[in-house]
Design goal:
By secondary structure, the protein is of the alpha+beta class. The protein has helices at 23-35, 39-42, 56-70, 88-101, 137-143, 169-174, 195-211, 220-231, 330-337, 340-345, 392-405, 432-451, 478-481, 485-498, 500-506, 542-547, 563-576; strands spanning 8-13, 112-116, 122-126, 129-134, 148-150, 154-156, 159-160, 179-182, 185-188, 242-249, 256-263, 276-279, 292-302, 311-318, 348-359, 409-414, 420-429, 453-456, 473-476, 529-531, 538-540, 552-554. Strands 15, 16, 17, 18, 19, 20, 21 and 22 form an eight-stranded mixed beta sheet that branches. The chain has a five-stranded mixed beta sheet with strand order 11-10-14-13-12, with helices on one face. A three-stranded mixed beta sheet has the order 5-9-8, with no helix packed on it. A hairpin with a 5-residue loop joins strand 2 and strand 3. The chain is globular and about 65 Å long. It catalyses: L-glutamate + NH4(+) + ATP = L-glutamine + ADP + phosphate + H(+).
């Protein structure tokens, strides 16, 4: 029978820190670890010239110095190569010792310290409590444990280090983790800076598994990496089923709600999607004794979070009898946009959604000192720089996510108040403007959720000499976009002035705090319009005046307005209403 090579196991135990007053534990630990080594290798456990670790004779006088210089290092011994036969019992003993020594700290904490060598080169030092024990043939047969052999790395050219994982920085940068399988034996050839912690983690995790011990704690970044992989998993590669996220507006008229369901195959037509229901008593949209609210799918968008064939579904809400519930503003808007006279005019909308990013714990604008204020307004509008733009990564992520989803987002910019931003949706036709803005808001909510930042649509989040947040609504009809359209625009503005109070009542809660006649707003009780006038209720652009056709901007809506209400009301007043 051919001789099978024996397989060996590497156990790496590395406590990251020990409390003061534990010198006896440290000293005992060193002696116990050395006792597990073969006699011919115990001599190597003395002072290491390269690593400068103390021997038994030196430890008492150098303990304090070692603790000061290395902290946790006084509790460890350097890694080096040892061999020799050993029993499973001794292996378990070594592991037990290491586990006991690391009770007060992380089970696996790879610590790399940089220090200048005598020759001026910077070397990587890794110290670790450890044991290398060969398993018996019987253990190999039962558990099929692989062997992991550490080859020594060179500290300098032609010089061997007593620490197998110690390498110069220049060499470590050039080498990468390489693996090969020779006769069933896994061999680690070299480790670079990035691969080292992962390799040690894998070794320790495997030893814990083999011994039936609980696995070492996983670092948060490793957990997040796994979560990211799962979140980005493409289901389209393995199944025809998709995930549909149903979205609706909650009871406050501003809160977004959603829940997901599995569909058997991709769907592109909202009318082919199944209706669904939810507990309206938990969203302040139905009483507890008759709580069921029905979701009617109305618009489909690609899901930028799950990707693949998965979708976001904008819904409106009805009671079981098929009647729209009071918070369903889309139903009434759809009636207006489906009116023949409105359909002929093809109303276009460009919605400018302003919002403020707040620090989660203190509900204070992002980039502002907690409890304090930044410099006065001026440099922040469309500003660039760490002292002017706060939260750009969130803004840019939202921009791209909306484009992926199929939302007609047309731009972004930093606003006048620091921590405040704007995105624009449009031009969109009719009811689709409201659908797109609501889903864009939903996507922004999801992104700020991940970022740990609070999203605010408050029209005046900070009192005082700071700009508020609006949702300026740009509007045109086919007649306005034709030659001679400027006269149609002026007639439409006149109608809006006659219904000013009705529009103000529907343009968002708390708008009186914003429409003060200052900070680029008109007074809430006064209606006026002008060309290029940002202090007016309605602004007409210079290009529109010059060309005699185009669009106008209603600057009155607040950032928390309902786009279904605002867009349909403007269309109704300017197209259907007869004074």
């Amino acid at each position: 029978m051919a001789h099978r090579p024996s397989r060996s196991m590497v156990v790496v135990l590395s406590p990251s820190s020990f409390t003061s007053g534990s010198s006896h534990l440290k000293s005992s630990g060193r002696k116990l670890i050395r006792s597990t080594l073969p006699p011919e290798d115990q001599s190597k456990a003395g002072r290491c010239r390269s690593c400068k670790m103390p021997s038994d004779e030196d430890e008492d006088e150098e303990e304090e110095e070692a603790e000061t210089e290395h902290g946790w290092m006084a509790a460890g011994v350097p890694l080096w190569s040892v061999g020799g036969d050993s029993s499973v019992a001794r292996w378990l003993l070594a592991v037990g010792i290491g586990a006991a020594l690391s009770m007060s700290s992380s089970f696996l904490s790879s610590v790399v310290a940089e220090e200048e060598e005598e020759d001026g080169s910077t070397a990587m030092h890794l110290y670790s409590l450890w044991a290398i024990i060969k398993c018996s043939t019987a253990l190999e047969k039962d558990h099929q444990l692989p062997s992991i052999r550490m080859l020594q790395g060179t500290q300098q050219e032609g010089r061997r280090s007593c620490c197998p994982l110690r390498q110069s920085v220049g060499e470590a940068e050039e080498k990468s983790l390489k693996k090969r399988d020779i006769d069933g034996t896994l061999e680690v050839l070299s480790l670079d800076n990035a691969a080292l912690p992962l390799a040690l983690f894998s070794l320790c995790n495997f030893s814990s598994f083999a011994l039936g011990l609980p696995p070492p704690p996983v670092h948060y970044s490793q957990k997040m990496s796994l979560l990211t992989d799962l979140i980005n998993m493409n289901l389209s590669d393995t199944t025809e089923k998709i995930i549909a996220e149903y979205i609706w507006v909650g009871g406050s008229g501003m809160d977004m709600r959603s829940k997901a369901r599995t569909l058997s195959r991709p769907v592109s037509d909202p009318w082919k999607l199944p209706k669904w229901n939810y507990d309206g008593s938990s969203t302040n949209q139905a009483p507890g004794e008759d709580s069921e609210v029905i979701l009617y799918p109305q618009a489909i968008f690609r899901d930028p979070f799950r990707r693949g064939n998965n979708i976001l579904v904008m819904c409106d809400t009805y009671n079981p009898a098929g009647e729209p519930i009071p918070t369903n503003k889309r139903h009434a808007a759809a009636k207006i946009f489906n009116h023949p006279d409105v359909l002929v005019e093809e109303p276009w909308y460009g919605l400018e959604q302003e919002y403020t990013l707040l620090q989660k714990e203190v509900k204070w604008p992002l980039g502002w000192p907690v409890g304090g204020y930044p410099g006065p307004q001026g440099p922040y509008y469309c500003g660039v720089g760490a002292d002017k733009a706060f939260g750009r990564d969130i803004v840019d992520a939202h921009y791209k996510a909306c484009l992926y989803a199929g939302i007609n987002i047309s731009g972004i910019n930093g606003e006048v108040m620091p921590g405040q931003w704007e995105f624009q949706v449009g031009p969109s036709v009719g009811i689709s403007a409201g659908d797109e803005l609501w889903v864009a808001r939903y996507i922004l909510e999801r992104i700020t959720e991940v970022a740990g930042v609070v999203l605010s649509f408050d029209p005046k989040p900070i009192h005082g000499d700071w700009n508020g947040a609006g949702a300026h609504t740009n509007y045109s009809t086919k007649s306005m976009r034709k030659e001679g359209g400027y006269e149609v625009i002026k007639k439409a503005i006149e109608k809006l002035g006659l219904r000013h109070s009705e529009h103000i009542a529907a343009y968002g809660e708390g708008n009186e705090r914003r429409l003060t006649g200052r900070h680029e707003t008109a007074d809430i009780n006064t209606f006026k319009w002008g060309v290029a006038n940002r202090g007016a209720s309605i602004r007409v652009g210079r290009d529109t005046e010059k060309e005699g056709k185009g669009y106008f901007e209603d600057r009155r809506p607040a950032s928390n307005m309902d786009p279904y209400v605002v867009t349909s009301m403007i269309a109704e007043t300017t197209i259907l209403w007869k004074p």
